[in-house]
Amino acid sequence: MTKSALQIARAAYQPKLPKALATGAVKVVEGAPTQSVADQEAIKALFPNTYGMPLITFEAGEAAQLPAMNVGVILSGGQAPGGHNVISGLFDGIKKLNLANKLYGFILGPGGLVDHNYKELTADIIDEYRNTGGFDIIGSGRTKLEKVEQFEKGYEIIKQLGIKALVIIGGDDSNTNACVLAEYYAAKNYGVQVIGCPKTIDGDLKNDMIETSFGFDTACKTYAEVIGNIQRDCNSARKYWHFIKLMGRSASHIALECALQVQPNVCIVSEEVEAKDMSLDDVVTYIAKVVADRAAQGNNFGTVLIPEGLIEFIPAMKRLIAELNDFLAANAEEFAGVEKSQQREYIIGKLTPENSAIYASLPEGVARQLTLDRDPHGNVQVSLIETEKLLSEMVATKLAAWKKEGKYNGKFAAQHHFFGYEGRCAAPSNFDADYCYSLGYTASMLIANGKTGYMSSVRNTTAPAAEWIAGGVPITMMMNMERRHGEMKPVIQKALVKLDGAPFKAFAAQRDHWALNTDYVYPGPIQYFGPTEVCDQPTKTLQLEQAK
Question: Contact, 148 vs 136, CB < 8 A?
């Protein structure tokens, strides 16, 4: 396999570890018993064997020779930079405990466990993937582990390979599955431990014990570099408004972090839109006003950052989508028989007056996306809606009306971008390389100490890596009950942007200034070699949250 110069140099990077892990042996310090964030009685009833366990912190301990054990690992869900380092940290951790220990990777996600598709991860394989992006060492998948048949089928291969523990590297859904699996194996006394690791570039898997999900740092730095490049171009040509949609369906952490890094003219935060009960027209008016104010100064250019999930956070749009979902599910055949050119009018005539008016106001392309593209559950595929085009078209329409009224005298031309997959498999930043390696190593220590139903936790992450605090947090502690596909299910509570949190407050304090002025910051590409202030900085979000 041909390698780039960066890959070759990067393979030699030795990730930094917290002091307690660097010795290779730890002692467990247990905290107070925990409870779930909400719905305590319901969660306790569903997880009697793994509920209420204490928080765990590791301190340096005496080395002890442990009997050999085998461990399984699964990459689950969407890719995030650093996954390979979680696996290499886990590998190095179990080998430090006993050289005879083996690591088995299940191929293409949880489905590999159920289908008995696996390979042993040996030192030569691991060494090929250290400090690289992507999940291609074993691939990833989105099979949900929730049925007893799956648990039993997985147990067959676990027993066959003599696996003592399974590490599931994934986001909130994958770690929910890990928790369910841990509970099932504990209830059956199968002697199989299950440990989770917090992955998602969206940044919405976090709490007091999980300061950040891995991959968020690298993905935001990757997007911020490209947005910075666009802003430099924008400020050079001075004739375009760039509408940039960023990944993050359920939360606006990515958009907010990128805004803090690049200082755009506009950044919409979905959680604020919902909290203020803003309509689509309110959002459009807000952007159009910034465009008009800059035009009055002779600046007919700018940048607008938009979170991918915005549409679902606009209360009126949410109601429209819900009615469309129900109507199209009940009248699919009739709708299919309507001529394409008549479909828009047909829908307008079938909706309640409020939703009909909103639907009629949408540009043709977006209206079509709302009615045509459904996911397997019959719901609108929000990520396919070109929100950046929807907003720029509606802003253009509003500005044209203002021009007629003499309220606006500028020129408006838009360019559109969507940054998503570009950030998911980047070579991990030093922060993510270190953080992920530490998460994997911590998982090996949780296994060695007989723990199950825990998520690997590394805290104090704005300090130098040696001062990070490694340990574990019971996954049940993060859970609540939510309605999924018509029934109440236990799930890890998503962490949305807090409007009273330090990152949003820092943004809100400066956005009016950024709107009017051209205050762009150009972060440039991720740096892997050089001074620590250039190479090892955590995200602005983390720095503000930890007030460091």
Answer: no
Instruction: Give whole-number Cα distances, 418 to 158, 286, 305, in Å.
Output: 41, 21, 10
What are the catalytic residues? Answer: 202
| Angle made by CA atoms 318, 380, 223, in degrees to the nearest 5 | 85
Phi-psi region of 136 (alpha: psi -120 to 50; beta: other; left: phi over 0): alpha
Q: How would you class 379 by CB atoms within 10 Å of its CB: exposed for 0-12, middle for 13-18, buried for 19 or more?
A: middle
Helices 502-516 and 253-262, axial angle in degrees (round to 10): 50
For 120-134, give the DSSP string: E--HHHHHHHTT--S
Tens of pLDDT, residues 72-124: 999 999 999 999 999 999 999 999 999 999 999 999 999 999 999 999 999 99
Q: Which two tokens stand for residue 444?
A: 């090996």
Classify residue 144 by its DSSP letter.
Answer: -
Could you read off the pLDDT of 212-256 as tens digits, one per residue?
999 999 999 999 999 999 999 999 999 999 999 999 888 999 999
Nearest Cα residue to 351 out of 372, 311, 313, 320: 320
Dist. CA 303–CA 308, nearest whole Å = 16
| Rounded distance between C-alpha atoms, residue 209 and residue 225, angstroms | 29
**Cα–Cα–Cα angle for 73, 153, 106, rounded to 5 degrees:** 20
3-state DSSP call for residue 85?
A: helix
Q: What is the helix (H) or strand (E) element at residue 230, kind and residue range?
A: helix 216-237
- Of the candidates 210, 321, 200, which has an alpha carbon nearest to the alpha carbon of residue 249? 200
Q: Are the beta carbons of 394 and 314 closer than 8 angstroms? A: no
